[in-house]
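Narrative of accomplishments. A recurring question from our advisory board has been how the design workflow behaves on a single, concrete structure rather than in aggregate. To address it, we present the structure tokens for one chain from the evaluation set, followed by the sequence designed for it. No filtering or post-editing was applied between the two.
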């Protein structure tokens, strides 16, 4: 019987069980168990091992790297090349318009862009 995961011991036992049934076919008893276990494990991890959003500048740099962008490319999104340099070197903060443009054009989550730095 599957129960809520409330302790670290239950968490590790659940991970072990999920590892054994992970590749079970969908719509089978073990497949359903794997689906429920993964939901319970995710909930436990969200509560006990939260991951903070990345630093705004690191999020921008990461997305630039993913997309093969240069500072010049970024200047087309947030303004002058000198402004991009100031932002990436943390000498200038992002303003609301820049945050909106970065979110809309690069699909960087707002949560990553608005944290204080």
């Amino acid at each position: 019987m599957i129960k809520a995961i409330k302790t670290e011991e239950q968490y590790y036992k659940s991970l072990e069980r999920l590892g054994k049934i992970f590749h079970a076919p969908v719509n089978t008893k073990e497949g359903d168990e794997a689906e429920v276990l993964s939901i319970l494990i995710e909930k436990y991890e969200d509560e006990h091992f939260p991951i903070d959003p990345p630093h705004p500048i690191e999020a921008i740099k990461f997305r630039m790297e993913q997309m093969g962008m240069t500072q010049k490319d970024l200047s087309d999104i947030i303004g002058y090349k000198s402004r991009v340099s100031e932002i990436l070197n943390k000498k200038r903060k992002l303003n609301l318009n820049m945050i909106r443009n970065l979110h809309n054009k690069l699909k960087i989550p707002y949560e990553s862009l608005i944290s204080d730095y």
